[in-house]
Amino acid sequence: MSLRVRIAIVLAVCIAVLLAALVLAHRFIIARAYEDIEQDEVRAELQTARSIIESDLDALDVLLLDWSSWDDTYNFMETRDSRYVTGNMTPNLLEALHIDAIVFRSATGDTAIARARDAGGRSIEIPGLTSRIPADHPLLKFPSNDEGVGGLI
Fold first, then answer.
1. 126: nearest Cα among 150, 101, 108, 96
2. In 3D, which of 121, 80, 120, 116 has the Cα closest to residue 101?
3. N vs C: which end of the chain shows fewer Cβ within 10 Å?
4. pTM score > 0.85 for this model?
5. Alpha carbon separation from 98 to 53, 60, 102, 116 (Å, rounded)
6. Partners of 117 in the β-ladder
7. Coil, strand or helix: which one is 141?
């Protein structure tokens, strides 16, 4: 075997070893580092989403406390007077409150009002909206008159 062939074989083996080393380095070092970075980014985005949802729930709690402690709402729940609906359940109410549905439900599970809107802002009926929420659902259990519960459906 000539010297040229030996040198070519040695160079080919060296190049193959270097390429294998690069592939292994990429697979076990660089790729894992990127996976760790991606996982950290996903965790951060999930935490941001959780914070946004918690902020929205806090704002909704304030809104619900305002409406539920209002004497007119209390009287409506007792009497079901249609003047309350006419005066307060305006066509743009859901949009103004930045919500998609509102349900007034008594402690016994009776629905007084149920309104909803679609993504286009049009008023819609959601068949069975209130019947899908059982009376023993955790969101309908109130520890006391001074405490509320919150969550998403």
1. 101
2. 116
3. N
4. no
5. 13, 10, 11, 11
6. 123
7. coil
Q: Can you tell me the distance from the alpha carbon of 114 to that of 54, in angstroms, rounded to the nearest whole number?
A: 24
For the record, the structure tokens of 133 come out as 């929420």
DSSP tag of 121: S
Q: Is the pLDDT of residue 132 over 80?
A: no
- Whether 123 and 100 have beta carbons less than 8 Å apart is answered as no
> CA torsion angle for 76, 80, 83, 89 (degrees, to 10)?
70
Residue 9 token pair = 């074989």
Residues comprising the chain, all counted: 153
Q: Strand pairing partners for 105?
A: 111
Taking alpha carbons only, the member of 115, 76, 109 closest to residue 97 is 115
Backbone angles phi, psi at 124, to 5 degrees: -135, 160
- Return the structure tokens found at 86: 């006419």
Give the pairing of strands 101-105 and 123-124: unpaired
Quick one: pLDDT band at residue 120, thresholds 50, 70, 90?
Answer: confident
